[in-house]
Specification:
Shape of chain A: globular
Strand content of chain B: 25-35%
CATH architecture of the largest domain in chain A: 3-Layer(bba) Sandwich
CATH superfamily of the largest domain in chain A: FAD/NAD(P)-binding domain
Oligomer: heterodimer
Number of domains of chain A: 3
Largest sheet of chain A: 5 strands, parallel
Number of domains of chain B: 3
Shape of chain B: globular
Distance between the termini of chain A: 47 Å
Helix content of chain B: 25-40%
CATH topology of the largest domain in chain A: FAD/NAD(P)-binding domain
Number of strands of chain A: 16
CATH class of the largest domain in chain A: Alpha Beta
Number of helices of chain B: 9
Order of helices and strands of chain B: EEHEEEEHEEEHEHEEHEHEEEHEHH
Strand order of the largest sheet of chain A: 3-2-1-4-16
């Protein structure tokens, strides 16, 4: 009989006061006992509503059942049948709007903690591998007979890695090209260590390599090589998963003052370049005693929580709407508040003020009130007259969004894009305006989530397989 | 890993290295840059491509040992390797059609970057006056290479130990006064020097290209750390540049932004030297 306890089994977390001073992971994950207890809450519904909410169709009730039967490695294989990055997804997927939102247990109480269980299984398998259990015996060893056809995947973020993993499983000869010196894309440059440890990302990528995926770093496609160059190197199909790497600025005075960062730069310095270990590592980042982060999404929360950990005394989120409209996950907002991040809501920045040496000093803001709904359906914030005030800030992080990086598209005139930069694809097949070239993830949709990008990578892998088979190359 | 095939000291603290990087060599053009990382934990630094050999797959970089990363790089020898080497990045220099005579101006280390411009312009049949400026004669490098490329070479030193005593702007002024008619000026070097040249050529109505080398992380348009104001518009030097119209660049802002990490750079360098000292004493 299932356990009808209405709440999710709690996951142990680092104490907020302590964790606000380190970059270690916040959520510590389930123990075997906690995972089994939570697995008992699953009703094992025959109609599997949760699976419909998962962009990569993880066999959720099945893997949970395997947990309750103590078959943790089998549970891992079950997840890996459709998801090549479970340790990542268990940590960063917005389960509350996907699988867990559709969980029957959520009608009267909290849904089953699917994300926490997925993470538990992935971490368990990783530890087993470390202790010498044969990796291939654990993972789904369903790599088919090798096809010789070469496929190029451009970008090693969640979309690219998923596409590459699936194509390798279909038997293709897959090479992933990454512009940075390490693979992982936003998983390594964007999402902070305390939410997604980089060792975990590296381990999942290592797993892909054991399936035959090759990864070439320091390759800026569009500069180092073009799609034509890759064609002449024998690649017959392509997947573009270059993400949403172009930072947006607001366009207010003072944005070029010293101490003003795009969230991309701030997070890349801290996460990819490990500025939090500076001067042990060589890349610095400016730490102000007052830091203001402009924006209300997950990226803004990440930047604010990083700034706090780096030692900033007062870290504020500056957001022009109210908490209700905030795009960040509730859990991230909750964690940020616990760590002492100040939320200045209904506050709109109008100018960054600087000192005589050109360093940021403060953020001039206006208070806002909510008016009529706008095009997005959210109530439009309107400024309150005479409400201008200054928020002290020696460091300002602009986290108002990112759009697709235009570098590759600008070097491929045949590749059609939207006016805002998104690559145009056939939504069913993910094929672009160039035959044999597919695209997915943030490069197509603009900034979204890891799991949606993974779903797109999966769809594209299927289409690429079909395309190559149609051409007698599959 | 990218092997150092050749290492040559070309001046005090200035080193030339030929790096085995066939992919970069195949695509590199004058005006573009690379980003390298010496070792694990190292920072990513941009360096302009000084030369390339497509056949042998090599890219030449010239750098001055000023901070921790360049000191570490300078400490490597032939046969050793650099961990990461990415490029070519940025847009190649674009010359207007039909230019006949150019002034290529290199200030200090900027001479390393001026050199491929001289070569490129000469290959297009453009007459080139190369003007290079250094503090004193012992610091001058690439003199023979620039001459060999077919440019007429003019030197300025601050102490007058070689060529004209003074700055490159004074040489440029002199050449113009003597009747030289330039269709274009290309200025590469310290920001103050590029600013001075641009101010002068603006008055004279000579189109001027400057090569910006701001602080950057990724070099692919992702971080925006390299933003430069050009004609009132914010540009990213790594993808929109590094070349810009010198008459439009906000040099004062660029000079200010160049100093963002001055304190940190000092700390890293001191720490590095401390460590070297420690090893030496052991």
């Amino acid at each position: 009989m299932p356990d009808m306890k209405p709440e999710k089994t709690q996951t142990p977390e680092q104490d907020p006061v302590i964790r606000a001073t380190n970059f270690n992971e916040v959520a510590l994950g389930y123990t075997v006992e906690l995972a089994k207890a939570e697995a008992q809450r699953c009703l094992g519904c025959k109609h599997r509503p949760c699976v419909a909410g998962c962009p990569v169709n993880v066999a959720i009730p099945e893997f949970i059942r395997l947990i309750s039967e103590d078959r943790f490695l089998d549970a891992y294989s079950k997840i890996m049948e459709t998801n090549s990055l479970p340790a990542v997804c268990g940590r960063v997927c917005p389960q509350e709007t996907q699988c867990e939102q559709l969980c029957v247990r959520g009608i009267k109480g909290e849904p089953v903690a699917i994300g926490r269980l997925e993470r538990f299984v992935a971490d368990f398998a990783m530890k087993a591998k470390e202790s010498g259990v044969n990796a291939n015996a654990i993972a789904n060893g369903n790599a088919c007979a090798k096809v010789k056809t070469k496929v190029a995947v451009i970008g090693s973020g969640p979309a690219g890695l998923t596409c590459a993993g699936d194509l390798a499983a279909y038997g293709y000869d897959v090479t992933v090209f990454e512009a940075f010196h390490v693979p992982g894309g936003v998983l390594v440059y964007g999402i902070p260590e305390f939410r997604l440890p980089k060792d975990i990302v590296a381990a999942e990528i290592a797993q892909l390599k054991t399936h035959g995926v090759k990864i070439k770093t320091n390759m800026v496609i569009g500069r180092t090589l073009t799609l034509d160059d890759l064609k002449s190197e024998g690649f017959e199909a392509f997947f573009i998963g270059t993400g949403a790497g172009l930072p947006s600025f607001i366009g207010i005075p003072g944005e070029n003052l010293n101490g003003v960062y795009s969230a991309n730069e701030f997070l890349t310095r801290v996460n990819l370049m490990k500025a939090y270990k500076y001067p042990e590592t060589d890349t610095p980042v400016i730490i102000g005693s007052n830091t203001a982060v402009i924006g209300g999404g997950n990226v803004a929360m990440d930047a604010a929580r990083c700034a706090k950990r780096l030692g900033a005394e007062n870290v504020s989120i500056i957001y022009r709407r109210s908490e209700q409209e905030m795009p960040a996950r509730a859990e991230e907002v909750h964690h940020a508040k616990e760590e002492g991040i100040i939320f200045r809501l209904l506050t709109n920045p109008v100018k960054i003020t600087g000192n005589e040496k050109g360093w940021a000093e403060g953020l001039e803001c206006a208070r806002m009130e909510l008016g009529e709904p706008d095009a997005s359906g959210r109530r439009r914030p309107v400024p309150v007259r005479g409400s201008e005030h200054i928020v002290d800030a020696e460091v300002v992080v602009v986290a108002i969004g990112q759009s697709p990086n235009p570098l590759l598209a600008s070097s491929e005139p045949e590749l059609k894009t939207q006016s805002w930069g998104g690559i145009i694809v056939n939504e069913e097949t993910m094929e672009t305006s160039i035959e044999g070239v597919f695209a997915g993830g943030d490069a197509v949709t603009g900034a979204a989530t890891v799991i949606l990008a993974m779903g797109a990578g999966k769809t594209a892998a299927l289409s690429i397989d079909r395309y190559l088979k149609e051409h007698g190359r599959g | 890993m990218y092997r150092i095939l050749e290492k040559r000291v070309v001046g005090p603290n200035v080193t030339l290295m030929k790096i085995d990087a066939p992919y970069v060599a195949r695509k590199a053009e004058a005006g573009q840059f690379i980003i390298l990382r010496v070792n694990e934990g190292g920072e990513r630094i941009p360096l302009t491509v000084a030369d390339y050999d497509r056949e042998n797959g090599t890219v030449t970089i010239i750098f001055q040992e000023v901070g921790k990363t360049t000191k570490m790089l300078g400490g490597l020898n032939e046969g050793e390797s650099i961990l990461d080497f990415t490029g070519p990045l940025g847009k190649p220099t674009h010359y207007q059609e039909g230019i006949k005579k150019a002034a290529v101006i290199g200030g200090g280390l900027g001479t390393a970057i001026a050199y491929p411009q001289v070569k490129k312009l000469r290959s297009l049949g453009v007459e080139v006056d190369a003007i290079i400026g250094f503090r004193n004669s012992s610091l001058i490098f690439l003199k023979d290479e620039i001459r060999a490329a077919g440019a007429s070479l003019h030197i300025a030193t601050e102490d007058g130990s070689e060529g004209l005593k003074g700055f490159v702007t004074e040489v440029l002024k002199k050449l113009i006064d003597q009747g030289a008619k330039y269709d274009i000026a290309i200025a590469i070097g310290p920001l103050v020097m590029m600013k001075a040249v641009s101010e002068m050529t603006k008055k004279l109505g000579i189109d001027t290209i400057v090569s910006m080398n701001p602080i950057m992380v990724d070099g692919t348009g992702m971080c925006g750390g390299c933003r430069v104001t050009v004609g009132g518009q914010v540009k990213f030097a790594c993808v929109d540049g590094p070349d810009f119209d010198g008459h439009q660049v906000d040099f004062d802002e660029a000079i200010r932004r160049q100093g963002i990490y001055r304190t940190e750079e000092k700390l890293s360098t001191e720490k590095h030297e401390c460590k070297l000292g420690g090893l030496g004493n052991a």
